[in-house]
Design brief:
single chain; 2 domains; mainly alpha; Fun_TF; 19 helices; DHMBA_Reg_Transcription_Factor; nucleus; two-stranded antiparallel ribbon; globular; Transcription factor domain-containing protein
Length: 507
């Protein structure tokens, strides 16, 4: 790692000496000793060079841009914003610990800063003036990132709690938050985190969907459009859950389910239209390499999977594409689930809906897999740092631009988790995805990725099976109570037939 090399050079360490042991040198100089960097300074540099992405052009999204100006404001001693200082140092030290220096000292320092940040943030929230400052909202967001870096069992719940707190602060501050560049960056970060929470949990977004479109005029047009579509998808998935929980095949419920299928199909078309509207010169990926087939047992450790490797001009554009792909995969999982619910007398895998879903999802899975080497800094010439010619729409706050970045692994974790859970993913693809998640956790230090490897969910088959099991239990209870006659299951059809939901739409 360049930071370890820098530390060795400036502290007089020897490459063949034990880690942390000073090398013997015949040259003694007071200037040499004065150049030592503390572990906190190294962790700060490491975090800025791996997570803080600064746009070079107006209208291009960065990542955690608000960190740098708040660090400048907090430069005095004692710090003006202790809650932000502790939250930032907790994140920086945790990231540094899991990727660079895995000793017990860094871990204890990170957790110590986290505890102090929780206490200082709670105090700031009780102060009417401090609670409305950008530093308080930034501290809460960083506490959420800390949970992802550490990746403990309760991390998702803790992350969700921090995001809920950030959303409440945004709601309380309203349009006043958008009046400064820092406030606007914070708003966009909260909106993105809120979207992730809604996306994963299939829950209603806090406040009306249009309220979150406040930033449409801030040069964030394409991203804001995509996020609005993602929120619509989460709302439809939530409505599906509510409808299926009733397990009622009444005429009104069947009609409502048919309407949901139409809305889901229309949303999928809206996603396709959004993708076609993107400027091709900046947003379209291009294939830069092709990986020949390799032995199956080597897929786990390969940096690329058999097939093409795609390149993007910016990491945030790659992430935007993968969110689009994940949304379409989840939309079609819901459509197939509803189709299975509506055609109990048929095998849902014989329906046109399943055939369309399989074709669409296989393409989306292949596209996501082709993007992962770029996310993780792969190069076809040497297998490591990216050296493709690019427009460089953004750059990291410091450090080597060619090195693999933690941010790329962080942004790739959810798309990898999404395709890991799909019925349409092949065994060899699934093995490779697990290997990439292990790499993101163990080599890039984003520890929550490791917790996704053992996920046993398969979509949509397991959800369909759960619906059928729940319906069977309810029917059995009704039979025992005399409310319904025993069910007679007809044989499965082997012909591809239109589902009753589709037929109802056409009548």
């Amino acid at each position: 790692m360049p930071y370890r090399i820098l530390a060795k050079k400036q502290n007089g360490w020897s490459d063949d000496a034990p880690d942390g042991a000073p090398a013997q040198s015949s040259i003694t100089s007071p200037i040499r000793n004065s150049l030592r960097l503390s572990v906190t300074e190294l962790a700060t540099c490491h975090f800025l060079s791996n997570f803080v992405l600064l746009p070079r052009f107006h209208g291009v999204r960065g990542y955690l841009e608000f960190v740098l100006p708040l660090l400048v404001l907090n430069g005095s001693s004692p710090p003006k914003l202790p809650h932000f200082k502790y939250a930032f140092e907790a994140c920086a030290m945790a990231c540094f610990h899991f990727r660079v220096q895995r000793g017990r000292t860094c871990s204890l320092i990170a957790r110590g800063h986290y505890v102090k940040a929780i206490s200082a943030t709670a105090t700031a929230l009780q102060d009417p003036e401090l609670s409305n400052q950008d530093s308080t909202l930034a501290a809460i967001l960083l506490l959420g990132y800390f949970e992802n870096f550490v990746g403990e069992k309760a991390g998702i719940a803790a992350w969700s709690s921090h995001i809920d707190g950030a959303i409440q602060l945004v709601k309380a501050r309203g349009s006043a938050l958008m009046q400064t560049p820092i406030g606007r960056d914070l708003f966009l970060t909260v909106r993105t985190q809120m979207l992730s929470k809604v996306f994963i949990a299939a829950s209603d977004p806090p406040m009306d969907i249009n309220w979150w479109d406040t930033a449409l005029g801030s040069g964030d047009h394409f991203t804001a459009q995509a996020q609005q579509l993602h929120i619509r998808g989460a709302q439809l998935r939530l409505e599906v859950i509510r409808r299926l929980d009733s397990q009622s095949h009444s005429k009104s419920n069947v009609e409502a389910i048919s309407a949901l299928v139409r809305h889901l199909r229309q949303l999928d078309q809206d996603f396709v239209s959004w993708a076609k509207s993107l400027p091709p010169q900046l947003f379209r990926p291009r294939t830069v390499a092709w990986i020949d087939s390799a032995r199956h047992d080597r897929h786990v450790n390969n940096e690329g999977f058999t097939g093409r490797v795609d390149f993007y001009v910016d990491i945030m554009i790659a992430a935007l594409w993968n969110m689009y792909r994940c949304s379409r995969i989840l939309l079609w999982a819901v459509i197939v689930r509803l189709t299975a619910w509506g055609c109990k007398s048929l095998d849902y895998r014989t329906t046109p809906e399943y055939a369309t879903a399989a074709t669409t999802c296989v393409d989306m899975i292949s596209d996501i897999i082709a993007s992962i080497p770029y996310h993780l800094g792969w190069n076809p010439s040497n297998g490591r740092a990216t050296s493709f010619p690019q427009h460089k729409l953004s750059s990291f706050a410091c450090g080597d631009e060619q090195a693999a970045k933690c941010l790329g692994g962080y942004l790739a974790t959810w798309p990898l988790t999404c395709i890991l859970a799909q019925d349409y993913t092949t065994d060899s693809q699934r093995a490779w995805v697990k290997g990439r998640l292990h790499y993101i956790s163990n080599d890039l230090g984003v520890r929550y990725a490791d917790g996704m490897v053992n996920m046993k969910l398969r979509m949509p088959s397991m959800l369909i099976q759960r619906d059928a099991t729940t319906a069977a239990y309810k029917s059995f209870d009704n039979i025992l109570s005399g409310k319904a006659a025993p069910l007679v299951c007809p044989p499965l059809s082997t012909n591809i037939t239109k589902s009753p939901l589709t037929a109802a739409d056409q009548n």
